[in-house]
Design a protein that fits this description.
Strand content: 5-15%
Helix content: 40-55%
Order of helices and strands: HEEHHEHEEHHHHHHH
Shape: globular
Strand order of the largest sheet: 1-2-3-5-4
Number of strands: 5
Radius of gyration: 19 Å
Structural class: alpha/beta
Number of domains: 2
CATH topology of the largest domain: Zincin-like
Length: about 230
């Protein structure tokens, strides 16, 4: 089931779904959470972590089993103002991580011009990619067929990172360059992982590893929509 089919299915089923609102977040349950997940604590925490103008970017969170999530081996995804969350979660912290990550994609969609117009985040990301390329070459990995210069997601490069190198090894090789292996796969995931670190991790570490992501998020975290004059 692709994203469009998921959106269509859920919209058609809305009348049958149980609904709850926690803070600013509307939640529709296609299926209940499996295991003992205290989702109320999770959504209260997210309301506390994120500023109002970011919470407003998500119209609804849908919870359930979705084929597209299974196909992608993903726990959550963002699409068209909604977040889709798998009802199978390890624990509350895992669920918080997943939802905050998808909020990051909503923030990028809304404030993308501001984030990327000066090119700082992109150039920083690609510069680190070039350094990693040199490291992998030095480690005798065959990288001739892979393009490290594209900021967009590349399935072949992703498979090389995941299977050819392995995330554990990649994490060691990319220390002090990237926050986590998956953030290497694209500019979009580089920002999303930085967003997670900003709201759930260590701000000083983020500032050290991803200074331009930290700078932009520090600004966005403090803006007030009604009072801010910045043209996004």
């Amino acid at each position: 089931m692709n994203r469009k089919k998921i959106v269509s299915y859920v919209k058609n089923q809305n009348k049958k779904l149980s609904n709850q609102k926690i803070g600013q977040i509307n939640i529709f349950f296609k299926d209940p959470f499996i295991d003992d997940i205290d989702y109320e604590i999770v959504f209260r925490k997210i309301n506390q972590l994120l500023p109002d103008h970011m919470l407003e970017l998500i119209d609804v969170v849908y919870v359930g089993e979705f084929e597209n999530l299974k196909e992608k081996n993903a726990n959550a995804l963002y699409s068209d103002g909604a977040v889709y969350v798998d009802c199978k979660q390890e624990d509350e912290n895992d669920l918080i991580d997943d939802i905050i990550h998808e909020f990051a994609h909503a923030v990028e969609d809304r404030f993308g011009n501001f984030l990327y117009e000066d090119g700082d985040i992109k150039q920083n990301f690609l510069g680190k990619r070039r350094k990693l390329e040199s490291i992998l070459k030095y480690e005798n990995y065959d990288i001739d067929n892979y393009d490290f210069s594209k900021p967009e997601f590349d399935g072949d490069l992703d498979k090389f990172f995941f299977r050819g190198v392995g995330y554990e090894k990649l994490n060691n090789l990319a220390q002090n360059l990237f926050l986590a292996p998956y953030s290497i796969t694209s500019l979009r995931e580089y920002f999303a992982r930085g967003f997670e670190e900003f709201y759930l991790g260590n701000l000083n570490f983020l500032k050290y590893i991803c200074p331009y992501v930290y700078k932009k998020l520090s600004f966005l975290d403090n803006i007030q929509n009604e009072e801010n004059n910045y043209e996004f």
